[in-house]
Amino acid sequence: MTENSNHHMVVRAKFNFQQTNEDELSFSKGDIIHVTRLEEGGWWEGTYSGKTGWFPSNYVREVKSSEKPVSPKSTTLKSPPKGFDTSAINKSYYNVVLQNILETESEYSKELQNMLSNYLRPLQTSENLTSSYRNVYNHWISVSVSVSEVL
Questions:
Q1: Distance between CA 97 and CA 117 in Å, rounded?
Q2: pTM for the complete prediction?
Q3: Is CB count within 10 Å lower at the N or C end of the chain?
Q4: Is the pLDDT of residue 28 over 80?
């Protein structure tokens, strides 16, 4: 058994996991879990959404520091209890959340570009389109350009 007291490991769920016992932790694919205890044998203890429980270690992957973007100044919504240093956990969690947002927006941008190039541009050449559809096309281009600029 290995206690994880000095190192705060953050993992991301690769699959959904539904608890079957009271001491297990349920989560969905993509959820971020803070590991509190590493055990040999395939089960780890972690905290997610205010609950602590056991989960299979092969359902998650560690979020490496190289995957985390350099974080701007992080702000805390609530002040931590006195004598409890959460700055490392907050920065780690902030980085994971920010990375997740960037990955999601990047996928969204790819889907916008795909829709534009594979469907809307070919339809634009059709002479049967109403002005409403042309407006949708123009707005789609505008949104696509805006998302690309943000990323």
A1: 30
A2: 0.43
A3: N
A4: yes
